[in-house]
């Protein structure tokens, strides 16, 4: 049975089903901060954990499996998510990548309205030739990717050279890393970048 952390107004017009990244749980400080900011902007979030991460709560140190192994778990979460309005799916890093791999089938069947990726892992750090973008070239589902400009999983200059479908919008966060966090010298804070990212999500149609 899938357990959700439910944040934001129960009567929200938009709900975002949000999956965690590879190494941190659904109630990490980062996920808490994003959910709180979205709630403050009128977006409800439903957070859930993949089985390997949930098992860690009982002491089982399971590594994250390949993204393809998690597709059915994401489909099950969508089926279990009770929403009265528009449903978006997405996640942080790995969670967003898994969501992107099921987005088109769910969009075509009317189950979701769009996809939100927060820090998409375009390639493993230091391995820019190992791209994870093939399915993004023909994406039919409306997609918003919020990406830090210096994210080692895909910096701005690299992503500009990728073939991405016209349905994909990329919101660049100034000086952000994979957590969207800027360096102190930039004059910005993580809160600034999260506010910009969540504002874009809330306004996105």
From TrEMBL:
Family matches, as InterPro entries: AB_hydrolase_fold (IPR029058), KANL3/Tex30_Abhydrolase (IPR046879), NSL3/Tex30 (IPR026555)
Domain of life: Bacteria
Key words, A-Z: Hydrolase
GO molecular function: hydrolase activity
Occurrences of domain KANL3/Tex30 alpha/beta hydrolase-like (ranges): 14-204
Name the UniProt record assigns to this protein: Alpha/beta hydrolase
UniProt organism field: Mesorhizobium hungaricum
């Amino acid at each position: 049975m899938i357990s959700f952390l439910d944040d934001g107004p129960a009567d929200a017009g938009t709900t975002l089903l949000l999956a965690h990244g590879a190494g941190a749980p659904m109630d990490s400080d980062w996920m808490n901060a994003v959910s709180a900011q979205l709630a403050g902007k009128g977006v409800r979030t439903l957070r859930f954990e993949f089985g390997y991460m949930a098992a860690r709560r009982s002491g089982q140190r399971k590594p994250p499996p390949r993204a393809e192994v998690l597709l059915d778990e994401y489909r099950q979460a969508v089926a279990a998510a009770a929403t009265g309005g528009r449903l978006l799916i997405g996640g942080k890093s790995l969670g967003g990548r898994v969501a992107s791999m099921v987005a088109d089938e769910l969009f075509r069947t009317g189950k979701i309205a769009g996809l939100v990726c927060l820090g998409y892992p375009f390639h493993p750090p230091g391995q820019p030739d190992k791209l994870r973008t093939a399915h993004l070239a023909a994406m039919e589902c409306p997609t918003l990717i919020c990406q830090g400009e210096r994210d080692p999983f895909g910096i701005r200059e690299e992503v500009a050279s990728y073939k991405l479908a016209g349905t994909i919008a990329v919101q660049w966060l100034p000086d952000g890393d994979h957590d969207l966090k800027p360096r102190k010298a930039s004059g910005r804070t993580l809160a600034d970048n999260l506010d910009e990212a969540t504002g874009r999500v809330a306004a996105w149609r």
